[in-house]
Specification:
The complex is a heterodimer of chains A (about 160) and B (about 350).
Chain A: H1 2-5, H2 19-34, H3 38-45, H4 49-69, H5 73-98, H6 105-108, H7 117-147
Chain B: H1 7-28, H2 30-62, H3 71-93, H4 101-118, H5 128-147, H6 155-176, H7 184-204, H8 208-228, H9 232-256, H10 272-292, H11 305-308, H12 311-322, H13 324-345
The chains are: A mainly alpha (about 160), B mainly alpha (about 350).
């Protein structure tokens, strides 16, 4: 345990067999115990803005995959909602982290002014998503009445 | 740490450690285990539940930002909790559940780990070990519950354990979350589990109805993000309009067209491997950009508390003063969408 309590210093990476994995585990354990208390607590408290960025990128790409790969029209619309939500996350996150300096007033006033431009844009995105869902579902239902199917590869009316 | 302990507490802690070691030995060695089981089967369950219940109930109230938690009390709680959990596990090992032994080991290991970890924390603040205490309380209860899931005669015990665990967990959480802007990352990963799991389920489920339900899970997680990002109004809009309105519309749309949710139907186009490749590449690019691009930091972060209050009011002012024209355009858009939807599905 005393060995674990020492501060982690620079490590040279091993490259043979299981050695890198064991080394990584040991390094993590050292860090964990050496920075317990406030140091480990900081992990629970601090969110990096990149986390939101990468996460929303991941959600966006999942949604894009769903839009391209889904054969079912409703499934495609659901994936589209995922993409819109990824954008919403991103806008709110950037509003939270960069809101104070985005406005003109923050350059002129004494203290920085919190803008909520990103949140407003998110609200408009939600409005557009509502309209898109209504119209999209109406189109799907009309298409279903015509073809008794909502599979998108049967939608070839405009092709020929 | 030894200096802080009075005699009885030291005795108790040593007894708990001895018990832990003995039961670990018993777990490892079945013949010894049967001996322990005969010894402890009658009193084990009562003692274990009592030892587990009292400190768990006390724990939720004790952990707060203001009240100092004395080292002795903490060790007492720790030792009795650990002893109780080990006793309970030892007793339960005598029951017939071949596949549940691992879970019991896990729940006992939770507490032993916690005993180790808590020795390094500062007891009077919210720190790593106290957070772990709460998490492990829930984890232990969940493990015991999982390991007991086929025992019908233990249903009442299960319910008691679960209720105690959840009360302690949420009480402690409430005490922890009184000052806002704490534990953001913990909740971030909590919501991330829901969002990513829901999104993956949404694009991969064969049944479109299940897919929509997974999307609802994902949207709830996004609402949690909005709360973390001080966008409370947006979180409420997300729950009320997105989940309550749009997703219910989707569910209706799925249910009125009945024969589209057959699992035997092929759900993916032939393009799907290429789509997966494209999206993986795109995500790789975006993640690289996100990880390595340094955006200029905001001048003042986090924003001062006066700015953070009354998000709804600020949104209202912005919608009615700054963004009036987009607001009106959006209402026209909604009207057009409504008319278009009615015309499209009209039967004539």
């Amino acid at each position: 345990m005393l060995m674990l309590l020492q501060q982690p210093d620079s490590v040279t990476l091993a490259s043979e067999g299981l050695a890198p994995i064991l080394q990584a585990i040991e390094f993590t354990a050292r860090q964990w115990f050496a920075t317990s208390g406030d140091g480990a607590m900081a992990w629970f408290v601090n969110v990096d803005y990149r986390q939101y960025f990468v996460l929303s990128a991941f959600i966006f790409c999942l949604g894009l995959y769903g839009v391209i790969a889904r054969r079912n029209a409703i499934g495609m619309l659901l994936a589209l909602e995922l993409m819109l939500n990824a954008v919403n996350i991103n806008m709110s996150a950037f509003n939270f982290y960069y809101g104070p300096k985005l406005t003109l007033a923050s350059f002129t006033a004494e203290e920085s002014v919190m803008t909520n431009m990103g949140q407003i844009f998110s609200i408009f995105t939600i409005i557009v998503a509502a309209a898109e869902a209504a119209v999209g579902l109406a189109i799907i239902i009309a298409f279903y009445r015509m073809r008794r199917s909502i599979m998108l590869d049967t939608a070839n009316l405009m092709k020929d | 740490m030894e200096a802080n302990l009075s005699g009885s507490l030291l005795l108790l802690r040593n007894a708990a450690l001895l018990l832990a070691a003995a039961s670990a030995l018993g777990l490892a060695w079945p013949r010894l285990d049967s001996l322990f089981r005969q010894l402890l089967a009658t009193v084990g369950i009562a003692l274990g539940v009592a030892l587990l219940a009292a400190p768990l109930a006390a724990m939720g109230g004790r952990i707060s930002w203001d009240s100092a938690w004395q080292q002795d009390t903490r060790i007492l709680v720790l030792a009795s909790l650990t002893g109780g959990v080990w006793l309970l596990n030892l007793y339960l090992l005598g029951r017939k559940a071949e596949d549940a032994g691992l879970l019991r080991l896990a729940s006992a290991a939770c507490w032993t780990l916690f005993m180790l970890a808590s020795l390094f924390g500062q007891p009077e603040t919210v720190n790593f070990s106290n957070m772990l205490l709460l998490g492990l309380a829930g984890g232990t209860v969940a493990c015991i519950q999982l390991s007991l899931h086929r025992f019908h005669e233990h249903r009442r015990l299960l319910a008691i354990l679960a209720v105690i665990g959840f009360i302690a967990f949420f009480w402690g959480m409430l005490a922890l979350s009184v000052p806002a802007l704490r534990l953001l990352n913990f909740f971030f990963w909590l919501f991330t589990a829901g969002v990513v799991g829901g999104a993956i389920g949404c694009v991969t489920m064969r049944n479109v109805f299940h897919s929509a339900l997974m999307l609802i899970l994902s949207l709830f997680g996004v609402a949690g993000y909005f709360i973390l990002l001080n966008a409370e109004f947006l979180a409420m809009v997300q729950v009320i309009i997105y989940i309550g309105g749009i997703m219910v519309l989707f569910l209706f749309g799925i249910m009125v067209s009945q024969n589209i949710i057959g699992t035997e139907l092929r759900q993916n186009t032939a393009l799907s491997p290429w789509a997966a490749l494209l999206c993986a590449l795109l995500f790789g690019f975006m993640a690289l950009v996100g990880m390595f691009m340094e955006f200029p930091r905001a001048t003042e972060f986090p924003p001062s508390a006066a700015v953070l209050t009354s998000n709804t009011q600020a949104i209202g002012w912005s919608l009615m003063a700054t963004y009036t024209l987009p607001f009106e355009v959006a209402s026209v858009l909604l009207l057009m969408a409504m008319l278009g939807a009615i015309i499209l599905v009209r039967k004539d």
